Amino acid sequence: KGFSSTFTGERRPKGDRIFEALGATDELSSAIGLAGEFSSEKGYTFVDQLHKVQCMLQDVGSNIATPLSSAREAHRKRTSFSEKPILELEQWIDSYSEQLPPLRAFILPSGGRSSAALHFSRAVCRRAERCVVPLVQAGEADPNVAKYLNRLSDYLFVLARYAAMKEGKEEKIYIKPEP
Fold it and tell me: Could you mention a single GO BP entry for this protein (predicted)?
């Protein structure tokens, strides 16, 4: 009938921004899964990190599905989202960034299948973040969820560049067309 339930049992229309954010987060996990499969074929060790990210996205979804306006303390405790995964992403970003050449131009999604799939995942991540931010601003979701998605998009960008470098694939750069 066009309604669904949150984790708290509250019934909301399927078009509610909570379900929009949940859908975007689910798409993100699927995109990362695809990128992980391509990367696994190349034997990249970061595939384990991508799997861990997918698990964290389940926790992101749990937090989003538990609107703070209707959550009891037991719900909040069970679906809280800590700062620890954000700090871990930042460590991963620093580790890969140290191995990359400096960025001197805008990069277009490219650099082989693994890299392109990671760039696609980054774009989906940014959409998920745009869906979550209004929930955080309305006091319905934990601010750490939005911070995690923000840092995740940076991680996916750095990882896409790293994959292209490891495969010896050229990253296509933006070239301004002649007027």
Answer: cobalamin metabolic process
